[in-house]
Amino acid sequence: MENTHYQKLTKTFARLSRFSHLSAIAGWDMFAMMPPNGSKARSEALAEMSVLCHQILTSQEVARALSDAEQEDLNDLERANLREMTRQYQQAALLPESLVEAKSLAGSRCEHAWRTQRPNNDWQGFAENLKQVVKYSREEAALRAAQRGGSRYDALLDIYEPDMTSARLDALFGDLKSWLPDLLARATEKQAQKTLIAPQGPFPTAQQRELGLDAMKLLGFDFDGGRLDVSAHPFCGGVPEDVRITTRYNENELFSALFGVIHETGHARYEQNLPREWLGQPVALARSTALHESQSLFFEMQLGRSEAFLTRLLPHITARFGNQPAFERDNYIAWNQRVKPGYIRVDADEVSYPAHVVLRYEIERALIEGEIEVDDIPALWDEKMQHWLGLTTKDDYRNGCMQDIHWTDGGFGYFPSYTLGAMYAAQLFHAARRALPSLERDIANGDFTALFDWLRQNIWQHGSRFTTAQLVINATGEDLNPHYFRKHLETRYL
Amino acid sequence: MENTHYQKLTKTFARLSRFSHLSAIAGWDMFAMMPPNGSKARSEALAEMSVLCHQILTSQEVARALSDAEQEDLNDLERANLREMTRQYQQAALLPESLVEAKSLAGSRCEHAWRTQRPNNDWQGFAENLKQVVKYSREEAALRAAQRGGSRYDALLDIYEPDMTSARLDALFGDLKSWLPDLLARATEKQAQKTLIAPQGPFPTAQQRELGLDAMKLLGFDFDGGRLDVSAHPFCGGVPEDVRITTRYNENELFSALFGVIHETGHARYEQNLPREWLGQPVALARSTALHESQSLFFEMQLGRSEAFLTRLLPHITARFGNQPAFERDNYIAWNQRVKPGYIRVDADEVSYPAHVVLRYEIERALIEGEIEVDDIPALWDEKMQHWLGLTTKDDYRNGCMQDIHWTDGGFGYFPSYTLGAMYAAQLFHAARRALPSLERDIANGDFTALFDWLRQNIWQHGSRFTTAQLVINATGEDLNPHYFRKHLETRYL
Ligand SMILES: [Zn+2]
Ligand SMILES: [Zn+2]
């Protein structure tokens, strides 16, 4: 039997997926396992693979098969798969191999050097590498914008969030800016009336790890298809069949690693529940970065910091670390719901978090559009941090623009996903609660079956079958609406 | 400037080396990190990569460039590199892609299932998978033999030990068989006169790991370019820039993991000291598996179990585990030099070890030559174990032919390397002692500089520049001579 064009494409994309598997594991290893001297060879190996995948994806045979397959008789899922294939092809086809390789190498170099530059607060050294990354990202943005139309930054945004534009972001974030500063001030003021007892460490790493594993079990992480490890910056990597999440431990701080684990577990469960029978095909991939983030924030913020879940978690904490005044129920819940503007995005509470995102969004957009240069970042960062959170980062790069690695690998356009994710998470949790009247009680009892079934049926199992808008409308009855996020914050914090 | 054919080849082989890098790390991960459900996707990814590398290596451009480069003006090192490229090409070119892929898949499947089959003593289940592996290995051997001439088994042997033949092995192992049983009997008898005190556990895994790291430091392992982890079967993997060694821990047994680490450290130092400026090219690879094994056995047996080194190591052991009667110096040394025939090859002492190897050599040769079938293995194993070591493995597959994974991935032809390696190690240690009159004193003082410099200069830094015979003659003044191994065993054990 002759293969159809569509069938040939599924074979090519399955092959690409197998190559990505190796890159994903080697990439995880790079952050979680690799000793420093492996860096150069690893970067070169990953870059070589990235060039190969680019060649395969952008070959004339793929181009021709994509257009021929459009004429073939396909069912809905196949058609969605073809749509996602075409999207991947278009994203890749306009980048010359040399740019792909140069950008990948510059990114690895920048990230690797960052590991020692950050502790040394070495902005000059970091800026030099970052300039290379920005140079290639601007080239990429220009090429993409020339093809799609629209602005350069919008062209990068589209990689992570199909159908999202900076115009729409300006509206969404504009809405946020109109009420968030006031909400932040009121929440801080309200909390200032009560003095909280801080947990007293040390909390040994080994026990923190066990506590994280407890939480992962509670949240249904499949340990036969994934692992928990350590890296400087928590992430969720690997492949859907073998999901690798990481966190980092500070023996003086109990909850940072724990909620890092809960966050990554949200990402992991999305990956672990993508449609198994379609794995390896583009339609089986997670819908978008904002949707991915909505799952991690659903776990970390909507569920994880809810009174019901915190109550359910408390016995695990005292079982691992004994009792202490900070673990008295009301204090413990208030401690994990406290609002405290700080320097570090990944440690931020959910009320001040959007400030970090909007700040970066504004800087990275200006950077890509060529309105500012890398050397302008520290001053702008300081100014915006002062404006939003009343904190200065002058000369403190390690807690300012060098605090994490998103920009090191040229991931411009990614940051907005975090706050879009928070908005989606609030909207989804609202819909789940409506659908599941006994939700609060179930959570307090540690029974998450109905909630996770709801997520599986409404989000996880669909992969990329629907557009983000379709998926969210099917799940909640309407397109993205920031009202639910505002409502959530007001209910929890005011 | 136009590239020469030779230069084009170096680019292709560098590319292949980058792809191998990803496979090597993903392969290490598979044994040291991967959760069970990742197995299928990982096998498929590795198989896809193996097919790709096979395609690149056996392409017509490579074939043509190899023959054209022969006419070019090359220096000695380049010529050696070209010789090794040609060898790789010839090894690969006669295997059809479909066989490469089928063998790789069958091997991964067999290895993965073995992990649960071995604890269950499930020979039937294992045999079913192994038959597939043997089938493809026989096909491979037939194809290789048809091209090279010689027997089928010799064709597989040549993959691991260029220039080695079963005729020569029969002579070397025949010599061994003429004196080893007697030596084994006399050593056992001599040791029976003294009762030894066994170390009393438990020895917690975490401290055993620290002790292993102590030994690795002492032995010059570069931790900026490598790691120590855990796997069911100790191995040395990764890439020369990032060498991954593993061991396994038994809390009731102190020295098994430790000497596993010392063994793998020998492999690792060879890899870490291959010629840096040639990395990525075939000439920079380790010379052969027997030479590789000679380095690990040099570390584990020649050096590691010598009185001088054991004495140097003792304070590390008591620092980690306190004192106990078994750690009294004479008892401790005798304990680590005791001869005790047992079921498990990797736990065997160096006197009985060759019995394990000759047994497997005879079985695997017969298996590949089609003289026996997989179903015949257990009975033959039992018969030979009884003959050599007086032990029966009847119905005990887990401690018999299912004890390790060499055959699961079709690595037939590899086993003889272990005993060839032991012979090379003895010959090399003899030469090093001749060259370094203060060696014993240096070792007792923990000063291994001169010894490792000698190894670096004579073995490590040459990679595959010379043939095995040339390398050994340069280092020791003569070709492989089993006399030194016999001498070493007699001196230490009689
Ligand atoms: Zn996240
Ligand atoms: Zn070895």
Automatic annotation (TrEMBL), chains A, B:
Catalyzed reactions per annotation: Release of a C-terminal amino acid with broad specificity, except for -Pro
- Residue runs in coiled coils: none
Q: Which Pfam families match?
A: Peptidase_M32 (PF02074)
The kind of enzyme this is, by top-level EC class, is: hydrolase
Protein name per UniProt: Metal-dependent carboxypeptidase
Picking any one GO molecular function of the record gives:
carboxypeptidase activity
UniProt entry keywords in alphabetical sequence: Carboxypeptidase, Hydrolase, Metal-binding, Metalloprotease, Protease
Family membership: Belongs to the peptidase M32 family.
